[in-house]
């Protein structure tokens, strides 16, 4: 379709979808597949890949029409890594075959994705990763996907992997050349989490749950047809993933007084006996800051209409982490003795993180991870300083040293 498509055309297509597949009588998965095929999944994507080649701003027209009709969504919190990180990376660097294979089941939610980036010795310094991918030109592949490029054999360990216990696919970066500086010897792959050699172990967190995992890769064979981008260019590909990750974490669309500030404000209104002057002042300050962050997120999404996410997403993720931690701390103090209670310490492996559906103790503990996951606040401050404010980069002595020669 032409990129000149307008709101009236998008609304008409949405109404045609609803007429052909009434939400009340259509199976949820069937409806989502039909929506994808109609180009109404993410309208700014190419036609045939869930989109209409339309302006991103028209997505709100689709969403409003579907919400009014009671249509099901694709449970975006459960498949957030696929939607927010894997999909834009596949769109930007994938082959046509990869786009056709992965984007539809990803968006519909039939296949969950996880991210195999961080390692025990490569978290904030992600480019120092040591998981190795060695090309086996002669080896027979276990997969019919293999082309003339042969297989890659992957060995290593990844950590802090959300949803690995339910994921079918993973976006993976591994070192393919140890003889060049660390940023230049990395390649980017799509890993099948059901393949032999992939072992997922739970990591129990301070909340008692294990939404995170550590993943061990032992002789895992990945066909070259599942590589994204050129060999050795994985760091560049990963930047697309990371920039989108920070936008998806810190820039989610929420209504006014939504999210955690809404929970605290509701408690404040419903339980006047808990109020003090000091808590009132802190609540007002955080309410204003949360609203500023929300409006800044709206502006960021408007900027995305014209291009790709940039370092601004890092600033949003910084604000998200700080606000969540301060708001949850205020909530615990506001509730007094009740705020010290913790309802359930059961070891579970949830499919998603539910901040607003749990008690204050859970929110307080879980928010501590917000300044670590998706890029530590310290790393993001460096990104904002260098790429937004234009400040000089910190001196580094490892940029031109081969990875194999780095001290570890």
Task: Describe the model.
By secondary structure, the protein is an alpha+beta fold. It contains 11 helices and 8 strands. The longest helix has 28 residues. About 2% of the residues have low confidence.
Topology:
Blueprint: H1 7-20, H2 28-37, H3 59-68, H4 80-93, H5 96-108, E1 113-116, E2 132-136, E3 151-158, E4 169-175, E5 186-192, E6 198-203, E7 212-223, E8 227-228, H6 234-250, H7 259-270, H8 277-304, H9 312-335, H10 360-366, H11 377-388
Parallel strand pairs: 1-4
Antiparallel strand pairs: 2-3, 3-7, 4-5, 5-8, 6-7
Helix pairs in contact: 1-3, 2-5, 4-5, 4-6, 6-9, 7-9, 8-9, 9-10, 9-11
Domain Acyl-CoA oxidase/dehydrogenase middle: 114-210
Domain Acyl-CoA dehydrogenase/oxidase C-terminal: 232-389
Pfam family, one: Acyl-CoA_dh_1
